């Protein structure tokens, strides 16, 4: 992106200050970025559609982004193991995802039905902070699926937005144990399995605020764990240089969840309308790339520079997506029955989320609106 900025600056200088020429250079560059991104996305999607079923393990997958990732893998015909600390949440999520598969099968065409017929979802309760639980998860996955192609360390927590001095000992221990220690334990156990598989496998750790070393006021503990994961990734890349196991990062960007909105300010909300997305939207971008990843050390990001640029250029269209002009808030709330939307106004907004997947229409459970 920096080199693109240099090219633009040189172009403006060569134009000699001609306003029309500057506009032509700007729009030509913008068009090239968008077209190039679209071509790259299409090539990934083509490869994704041709790829066979994958065996996938996702921690922290009974809500939010984790559940959206699981659903997207299943709709691609993959076999998925979900995991969460709560046995009840695991059972409820399995039931919901199985219903999604059946809904898809009922409307799919012959070719898509064949793809979906491979989909399978199973799950187990697992606290990633506990080594014995992680070992049970690995054994469960290999018993159910035979092998593990993709492992995603999605489990994480931040315990809200507030100054460090207000965090209890238990809060700090839980954040560090889940985000950092949990990822270390899961990565170790996944590598122990994948290194003996004929085709190896791929492990993804989730990036987050602070992973680049920047400050994260009010989420200092969370930010420090993500920065630690970045160092862990760098070290692991060198350790596993000759391994059949690929280690990668996935960055979902800003995902619109109740956790994100709980500590948001008025200024944050203005930006949320531009670059925040629903978990399902992010999953639809990440999963195809995760399924066809090769090698090691890849960074699969949702919020790419072209996507940020496009969001800024189309900012006027995005006004009021998640907040109205008075910044009244749409809040996503996870429940056992799926996503619910709560709006601060009293006007009913009966929405339904309908999407096209693999050639057929697939609808999630209706979002109920509470005033």
TrEMBL record:
PANTHER family, per database record: CHLOROPHYLL(IDE) B REDUCTASE NYC1, CHLOROPLASTIC-RELATED, NON-SPECIFIC LIPID TRANSFER PROTEIN-RELATED
Protein name per Swiss-Prot or TrEMBL: chlorophyll(ide) b reductase
Biological-process GO terms, alphabetical: chlorophyll catabolic process
Superkingdom field: Eukaryota
Enzyme nomenclature, EC number: 1.1.1.294
Gene Ontology MF, one: chlorophyll(ide) b reductase activity
Major localization listed first in the record, in broad terms: plastid
Highest classification ranks of the organism: Eukaryota, Viridiplantae, Streptophyta, Embryophyta, Tracheophyta
Gene Ontology cellular component annotations, sorted alphabetically: chloroplast thylakoid membrane
Organism, scientific name: Urochloa decumbens
Gene3D superfamilies: NAD(P)-binding Rossmann-like Domain
